[in-house]
Design goal:
heterodimer; A: about 250 residues; alpha/beta; 10 strands; globular; B: about 350 residues; ABC transporter involved in vitamin B12 uptake, BtuC; two-stranded antiparallel sheet; two-stranded antiparallel ribbon; 14 helices; 6 strands; about 5% strand; binds adenosine-5'-triphosphate; binds magnesium ion
Chain lengths: ~250, ~350
Amino acid sequence: MTLLSVRGIGKRFGGLQAVNDLSFDVAAGSIKALIGPNGAGKTTIFNLVSGFLHPDNGVIVFGGAEIQALSSCEVAVRGMVRTFQHIRLFPRMTVLENILVGRHVHSRAGFLAGMLSLPFTWKEERRIREKSFEIMEMLGIAGHAGTEATSLAYGQQRVVEIGRALACEPKLLLLDEPAAGLNMRETIEMGALISRIRDMGVTVLLVEHDMSLVMKISDEVVVVSYGEKIAEDRPLAIQKNREVIRVYLGDDEC
Amino acid sequence: MVRRHFPVAAFAGLIVAIQLATLFTGTPYYLTQLTMTAYYSLVVVGLCMLIGYAGQISLGHAGFFAIGGYVSAFLTTFDLQHHRGAFVSLLEKSGALVFRHDVYGGSLLTVHPWLACAAAILLTVAVAYLVGGPVLKLKGHYLAMATLGIGIIVYRIVLGTEFLGAADGISEVPGFPLPGGLLITGNASSRVSNYYLAWGIVILGMVLLLNLIRSRVGRALAAVHGAEDAAEAMGIPTARYKLHTFVLSAVFAAVAGVLLTHYNAGIGPSEAGVMKSVRYVAIVAIGGMANLWGALSMSLVLNYLSLRGYFGTYDDAVFGVILILIMLFAPDGLLRRHLLSDLKRMVSRNPAEEETP
Ligand SMILES: Nc1ncnc2c1ncn2[C@@H]1O[C@H](COP(=O)(O)OP(=O)(O)OP(=O)(O)O)[C@@H](O)[C@H]1O
Ligand SMILES: [Mg+2]
């Protein structure tokens, strides 16, 4: 079953065609990787899919409905949550508070209920906390619950950001370079974590430069160059694809 | 639970202590300015919610204060006896109007203060929603300029409108009746009760805002303030949250305007002036931006000093200078929330730094 279907989307920034007539599908329950050289348009694709930008043309279907005109907030409410290439944790908030914010769409206390501190909000807060601790324990960051999130080591900040996204219980999780800035051990752990998230039933679309990670965990890989799709296949086939090898020649880690 | 309510109790204790001090020193007339201070403080804490917690500036809150005050003043002083149409009769039958006597013994038929207050709040909500929608899309000084514009428009309207008293404003506004036989009025005989009433209302407002800050909405506002794009990605409708906070803080200002107008028995155009708006912002700034208690205590001190005339002819200048100095030297305010921990860190770090060459 297809969870996300991107059909012929394009995006222009002034004179630059950052994304051009791009299509791909993400099957529910899979891990799909989006790779390509620097500046290929991967983050722009994420921005388009998650409602942070709107495509000039083309259609994006998520969970059976067109979403290309929705705002990022509405997209999140429908069950697609993203992380950022440059970590965007909430400053001056603890790890726990960051995760609590992730429960926003699953709670409902509004301005009036909050001001009057209505009894249902206490129960709701308790549920939010329980769920958040559950997530922190699963990720092994419960010990840092009271620490200011932005003061953690870089690798742990990445985990907190993913935890915050998981707190939304997304159907589709978009990870923009989750292993960037991580050392080798942390990268391996990140790979294991992403697999685990998929096994929990969350579909994952990820942008990543670390080829060993991509090849190990992805079910399918899309390769983009200059905003266009040049290949889409299983990891093993991608590694043998001549077009892909040509694009990656020069920075040939793979 | 107990720890959370400690500051509220402490502040209530301070209010009682101040009243007792005026009692023992034989200076009960200070209570008049202290009561007025309370109503201005209501504007300040509402604005603090907007500036400190939602991260949005407003240089137009005196405008909302004036909308509240003027609507209530007009409706409770405008004599409807000679305007008896179907609508007025309907209002009269439904108990929305009151007969009363003015100071010269003549009789008046006016809107009941409660209904006037409701109308004032409704109009404020409507204006705040209409204006806030487009204006809050702006950022930084553009937002400051746009909100400044709101204040100026309200000021020019009340100044130029004959039935709002033009430059003289509206006077002979009746007291505001409350349940239990209480009356918000500036009469010397009810000075003490009005002092407690006013500060009781401020404390109530504080409790509402403190609750809000600790709620799901407060957390979402902190998230929006900290990293707006990430908050959006978590499904928080950032624009709507900013707008609601703007409206909420406008309502605080309007309620303050209504009550102070009934306390003072009148209102004039200067209440809508730009310098009043600057003053509210300056107090929030010096109080520490995201610090309701800081804003409240600074408001208590500065508004009181100002109302007692300590700043003389430099009254407005003092607040302008405060705002400039804070922006230049302590953009996080003097009473920052983390002030204590910062001080501790400075104290514990400094010796170590001096050791290293
Ligand atoms: N908001 C924008 N305005 C103008 N140009 C943009 C904007 N966002 C991205 N670009 C340009 O679009 C192109 C694609 O950028 P994008 O960030 O999507 O690449 P990427 O594949 O994510 O690169 P990297 O691997 O370095 O993260 C780049 O040339 C970039 O400069
Ligand atoms: Mg990128």
